[in-house]
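User: Write out your own:

AI:
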Amino acid sequence: MRSLTYPRHLARQAVLLLTVSYLTGCASPTQVAPPARCAQVNYPVYDPAEPVNRGVFAFNRIVDNYALAPIARGYRDLPDFFQQGVHNFASNFGEPAVFINDLMQGNPRRSVNTLGRFAVNTTVGVVGLLDVSDRLGIPRHTADFGQMFGVWGIGNGPIVELPLLGTSNSRDAAGKVLSFLVSPLGDSDTVQTLGTISLVGGTVDTRASLLPLTDSLQKLPNYYSALRNVVAENRAAFVREGQAGATSPALDSCANSASDDFRAR
């Protein structure tokens, strides 16, 4: 019976992922990374299918404006301890995937750091609701398959606006698909349930953290180009972070990036 029920779990997760994951690509899925981490893009943003991408973006924006963003705004009104618990749980549930990416990137120090965090927070931190590791001086970092491909030297490829999944380059889009197919904790009913909770909670939490950024970008004349370029900057910094083997996210801020740069594109 397992072989019959697993495809149903997979289909359910696929539908759920497509429903709630829009705009998580602005930070790490997988990845819950602060939007302020940016680096100067030293390559041209290649967007040959821009007319098509803009059409998909318009659809994504409707979904975001009428579904995800309102939920995220309501979520921000919840008590801080609740929001922190959701953030911690989703982050901890994603640590096994981060661990795999650390290993695949050839970063033993980062992999040991991730494994230690997961062990401590899952046990002492009550399945990750409390971030005990951070208090012990074990900082969290994020990693995903898009970063892994970048560390391996695979190029960015053209920009792709995915329905409900947001803006990314082709390399990161492939990484998103791969991350969906890989399940480090197995496919038991318990893991499926926890994964659903983590996906929904993590998506809303990430979207809520991005509200100040997207609210400011929407005031610019060309929201599509502005968001596309900010995503590109964040992902460029994310790959460099992986190449450096850093065990904690870079603290450099791109908040002071000139908005004129966005208007010009």
Remarks:
- The chain has one domain: 2-28+49-263.
- The first strand starts at residue 159 and ends at 162.
- The beta strands are 159-162, 166-169.
- The mean pLDDT is 83.
